[in-house]
Design goal:
By secondary structure, the protein is mainly alpha-helical. The protein contains nine helices and two strands. The chain has one domain. The protein is about 75% helix and about 0% strand. Helix 5 runs antiparallel to helix 6 and helix 6 runs antiparallel to helix 7.
Length: about 210
């Protein structure tokens, strides 16, 4: 490799990391906007992420995809609100609750971005278990596998070279960890979540450069 080619690769890697950090910050900002009830702001943050994740989609579809995700979050919140009693979510109520409005919005997103419909099933299952108790991280990770396969346009992700082929891959687990850090609701943990997600978006951006 020539010195000029090596320098170009370094510059591209730096650009990717800078953009990946921006997207990671947008993810945090999107969830923060949703938490404070800023519907349009949340859509705008998630739209900016999808703009980089799904370069093959037009602007109208990108906005529909981001809106469907925020609508799913809103539907999830409504289900949880209906299960509140004396300020606490009742485990039996949340397990019996109708999550079809949540799944429907997630299916809309899956259809737009070209993800398997199990994205919606697993995400809704994870959100339910996150509030009810139990292993929410496995379905949550699988939902991100489906979204990553769409973003990478690689139905075989994660393509592991040797043993351990049954795992979810590093990127979905980064998303799960970022979600756990979000749950802590401190500035320090939010910043950690941003750092955790930078390689997630770098993977997507690097893949797009290689097309």
């Amino acid at each position: 490799m020539s010195q000029r080619s090596a320098e170009k690769q370094r510059m591209e890697a730096n650009d990717n990391r800078s953009t990946a950090r921006y997207l990671s910050e947008q993810l945090a900002a999107g969830f923060q906007a949703h938490d404070r009830g800023s519907y349009s702001d949340a859509i705008e943050h998630f739209y900016m992420i999808d703009k980089y994740q799904f370069e093959n989609l037009g602007d109208d579809k990108l906005r529909l995809a981001a809106t469907a995700f925020v609508d799913a979050l809103e539907a999830k919140d409504e289900v949880e609100f209906q299960c509140l009693q004396h300020g606490d979510i009742q485990q039996e109520a949340i397990m019996d609750a109708d999550y079809s409005p949540v799944r429907n919005k997630l299916r809309q997103r899956a259809s737009i971005i070209g993800a398997d419909s199990n994205y919606a099933v697993k995400k809704a299952e994870a959100w339910r278990k996150h509030k009810a108790g139990g292993n929410y991280w496995t379905p949550f990770g699988w939902s991100q596998v489906h979204e990553l396969r769409a973003a990478l346009q690689n139905p075989d992700y994660p393509s592991k070279p040797r043993a351990g082929k049954s795992g979810l891959g590093p990127e979905p687990l980064r998303y799960v960890l970022a979600f756990e850090l979000h749950d802590m609701h401190t500035k320090r943990h939010w910043q950690q979540g941003i750092e955790v997600m930078i390689p997630y978006y770098e993977t997507i951006l690097t893949n797009q450069m290689g097309k």
